[in-house]
Structure formats: structure tokens, C-alpha cells
């Protein structure tokens, strides 16, 4: 049964449950799992050290564990959840998109982006998405299934290994930012996403030891889940994919708005900001002649004025065959000015990855 405030969304029948992986488990649960396999509980700490601190997934690399125990532990706690189908790179190889095939053949994507001052990874939390936003390639694909906590975490573990091993130009580096902005609606997969955040931020070797302040969780506005997240005591940033300041248009662009209106979504976001102490990010995809009128920028500025907020405008990354495309430069400029007139900070996102089908869902759709 769902907990109070927890949302449930229909997942297609016949989907297989991912096998149990070490990253699905809390430190206490890992000890129990290791004991069930007939090993001493302290092996759980060793396995955690290998996976979360050394990114070592092959039993042959676990030299501090007796050879006779490695295969048994690997079979019980390290199933092959996902494999790389291919990497696509651009921006002199500093942007790398990965297409993953999950254990059941499902395809998902992640993107690693290296900038001069930081490294950001955009990860998926679902295969497909059930929110049905018409301008989004993932939304149009529909929802296949939720990702497990381990499937979410492994995207980051692999990215951190790639940075350590010099697979991305610029020398060894460490992830500084993680954004749940890939395929799926993170708060529709609440428990597994929360579990992933715990694994990412628990100190090594229990987790990856990353800062909660470097994690951003995006949502189209699932109000009960935002309220629940606000009570978790996290310092992650909340990003609300608004895309329209008025209910009439947002009902079309973000269908869940027919359930929770703009004001309700923003009120929940302000409550999260108050409890977390973090500024809310308002994500707004600028779509030519749809939502990029200066009067809508003015209306957005009025809604956000005086709040702990930052507006992140996103020039739409068009998908093949879609009628939706990016705004004209002059319209984008006027929209920015209309927001800034109310003293609301706003930036236009640096768009990366168009030449590698960078919009969420494009690569998986092309593969299919």
C-alpha cells in the first residue's frame, strides 16, 4: 500500500522486476544479505568499498575477499543490471551521452557534461515517462517501467569511473552535480529515487559520498510528492518544470496540471524552499510561438517576484518530425527582459548535445 502522500502511477503489466543489487540495499540490509549467502557480515563493508569507493564491479578485482567467496557474492549481489549500447560524444568529447540496455532489454539514457568549473551528470529515473508532455520525446514514448535504485545509482557509478579513468578529456575529475532530469518523472518513482539519493550521499564506503547540495530533483509538479520530499530533511535542489505561467496553456503542455494547478505547484515549491533552505529552480522550455510571448514572461515574473527562486530558460532541443522548436533569438531576449523587470534572476541554459540527439528520449527512440 502507498504511504500517505505517495503517488502511484500505472506501470505496464508484464514488466520484470530488476534483480536485487548491492546498491538497492541500506548498509544494514547489505549485512543481512551477505549473511544469507553464508558469508561473514563484514564482507558487506568490503563489497561497499569496492563498488562505491573503487567502482570495481568484477569479482577478480576484489582481492581482499577469498576467491571461493567472490563468485557467490557476485551472483547474489551484483547481477548484470545494465550494459552500454553505445556512447555518443560532442563538444570535443566533453559531452557524452550513453545509451543503456537494462537487464530486460529496456533502453534508457544518461548524459555526462564536463565544463571548465564543474562536471554534471543528467540521469534517468524511469524508462520512458507517463506524464505525456507533448513537446518531450520521452513523454511521447510513454512509460515502460520504473528504474530500480541500483539502476539509477549505476549510471552515476559508471560516470564517476569514466571520469577517474580519463575517458572524458581534461584529466581525472569527480562529479560535482547530478540532475534527475533524464528520462522519467523522478517523483513518480519516489521511493527508488529517494533510495538513490541516499546511496549517492551516504559517506564512503556506505555510498558515494557526494553532497546533497550538488543534486537537483526535477518534477513536473506532483504536489503530494513535493510535500513529502520537503519533510525528508534533504538539502537537494528542487527544479519545477513549469513551462507556462497560466493554467490554460500549462494544461496542454504539462497534462498533470489538470490535477494540480500552477499556484498549487508553486506553493508546494515555496514550502520545499523554506524547509530545505535551497533556492527553487523554475525550468521553462522556450517553444516558438507557444509559450515564449513577452506577456507570459511578465506573468511568470509576477508569480515569482520576491521568492527564493531562479529561472532556468531552456531553448527547446527539437526532436525529429516534431512541430515544436526553439524560440527566435529576439523573442527569447524579450522574454528574459520581462522576467528580469521583476527582479527575478534568470539564465538561459547552455544547450549541449543537439548533434548527438541530446534531448531526453531521442537516442532511445532512434535505437528502437
From TrEMBL:
A GO BP annotation: rRNA base methylation
Gene Ontology MF annotations: 4 iron, 4 sulfur cluster binding; metal ion binding; rRNA (adenine(2503)-C2-)-methyltransferase activity; rRNA binding; tRNA (adenine(37)-C2)-methyltransferase activity; tRNA binding
Sequence segments annotated as region (Disordered): 1-22
Binding site for [4Fe-4S] cluster: 129, 133, 136
InterPro entries: Aldolase_TIM (IPR013785), Methyltransferase_A (IPR040072), RlmN_N (IPR048641), RNA_MTrfase_RlmN (IPR027492), rRNA_lsu_MTrfase_RlmN/Cfr (IPR004383), rSAM (IPR007197), rSAM_sf (IPR058240)
Residues that coordinate or bind S-adenosyl-L-methionine: 184-185, 218, 241-243, 317
Domain of life where this protein originates: Bacteria
Main subcellular location: cytoplasm
Active-site residues, Swiss-Prot/TrEMBL: 109, 360
Cofactor note: Binds 1 [4Fe-4S] cluster. The cluster is coordinated with 3 cysteines and an exchangeable S-adenosyl-L-methionine.
Broadest EC class assigned to this enzyme: transferase
E.C. number: 2.1.1.192
Keyword set, alphabetical order: 4Fe-4S, Cytoplasm, Disulfide bond, Iron, Iron-sulfur, Metal-binding, Methyltransferase, rRNA processing, S-adenosyl-L-methionine, Transferase, tRNA processing
Record field: transmembrane: none
Compartments reported by the entry: Cytoplasm
Signal peptide region: none
GO cellular component terms attached to this protein's record: cytoplasm
Cofactor or coenzyme needed: [4Fe-4S] cluster
Catalysis performed (reactions): adenosine(2503) in 23S rRNA + 2 reduced [2Fe-2S]-[ferredoxin] + 2 S-adenosyl-L-methionine = 2-methyladenosine(2503) in 23S rRNA + 5'-deoxyadenosine + L-methionine + 2 oxidized [2Fe-2S]-[ferredoxin] + S-adenosyl-L-homocysteine; adenosine(37) in tRNA + 2 reduced [2Fe-2S]-[ferredoxin] + 2 S-adenosyl-L-methionine = 2-methyladenosine(37) in tRNA + 5'-deoxyadenosine + L-methionine + 2 oxidized [2Fe-2S]-[ferredoxin] + S-adenosyl-L-homocysteine
Family, as annotated: Belongs to the radical SAM superfamily. RlmN family.
Misc: Reaction proceeds by a ping-pong mechanism involving intermediate methylation of a conserved cysteine residue.
Record function comment: Specifically methylates position 2 of adenine 2503 in 23S rRNA and position 2 of adenine 37 in tRNAs.
UniProt name for this protein: Probable dual-specificity RNA methyltransferase RlmN
Source organism (scientific name): Streptomyces coryli
Gene of this entry: rlmN
Amino acid at each position: 500500500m502507498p504511504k500517505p502522500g505517495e503517488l502511484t502511477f500505472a506501470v505496464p503489466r508484464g514488466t520484470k522486476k530488476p534483480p536485487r543489487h548491492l546498491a538497492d540495499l541500506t548498509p544494514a540490509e547489505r549485512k543481512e544479505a551477505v549473511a544469507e549467502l553464508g558469508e561473514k557480515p563484514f564482507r558487506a563493508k568490503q563489497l561497499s568499498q569496492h563498488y562505491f569507493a573503487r567502482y570495481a564491479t568484477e569479482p577478480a578485482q576484489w582481492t581482499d575477499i577469498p576467491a571461493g567467496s567472490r563468485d557467490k557474492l557476485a551472483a547474489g549481489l551484483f547481477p548484470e543490471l545494465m550494459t552500454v549500447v553505445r556512447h555518443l560524444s560532442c563538444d570535443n568529447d566533453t559531452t557524452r551521452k550513453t545509451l543503456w540496455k537494462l537487464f530486460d532489454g529496456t533502453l534508457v539514457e544518461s548524459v555526462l557534461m564536463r565544463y571548465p568549473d564543474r562536471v554534471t551528470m543528467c540521469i534517468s529515473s524511469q524508462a520512458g515517462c507517463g506524464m505525456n508532455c507533448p513537446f518531450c520525446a520521452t513523454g511521447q514514448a510513454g512509460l515502460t517501467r520504473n528504474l530500480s535504485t541500483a539502476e539509477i545509482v549505476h549510471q552515476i557509478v559508471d560516470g564517476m569511473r569514466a571520469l577517474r579513468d580519463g575517458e572524458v578529456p581534461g584529466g581525472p575529475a569527480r562529479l560535482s552535480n547530478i540532475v534527475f532530469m533524464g528520462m522519467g518523472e523522478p517523483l513518480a518513482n519516489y521511493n527508488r529515487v529517494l533510495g538513490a539519493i541516499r546511496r549517492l550521499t551516504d559517506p564512503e564506503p556506505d555510498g558515494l559520498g557526494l553532497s546533497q547540495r550538488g543534486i537537483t530533483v526535477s518534477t513536473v509538479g506532483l504536489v503530494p510528492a513535493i510535500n513529502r520530499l520537503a519533510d525528508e530533511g534533504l538539502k537537494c535542489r528542487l527544479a519545477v518544470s513549469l513551462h507556462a505561467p497560466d493554467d490554460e496553456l500549462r494544461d496542454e503542455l504539462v497534462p498533470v496540471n489538470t490535477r494540480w494547478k500552477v499556484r498549487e505547484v508553486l506553493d508546494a515549491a515555496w514550502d520545499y524552499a523554506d524547509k530545505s533552505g535551497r533556492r527553487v529552480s523554475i525550468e521553462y522550455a522556450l517553444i516558438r510561438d507557444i509559450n515564449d510571448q513577452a506577456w507570459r514572461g511578465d506573468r511568470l515574473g509576477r508569480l515569482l517576484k520576491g521568492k527564493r527562486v531562479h529561472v532556468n530558460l531552456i531553448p527547446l532541443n527539437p526532436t525529429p518530425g516534431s512541430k515544436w522548436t526553439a524560440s527566435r533569438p529576439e523573442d527569447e531576449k524579450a522574454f528574459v527582459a520581462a522576467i528580469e523587470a521583476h527582479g527575478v534572476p534568470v539564465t538561459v541554459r547552455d544547450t549541449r548535445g543537439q548533434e548527438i540527439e541530446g534531448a531526453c528520449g531521442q537516442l532511445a527512440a532512434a535505437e528502437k
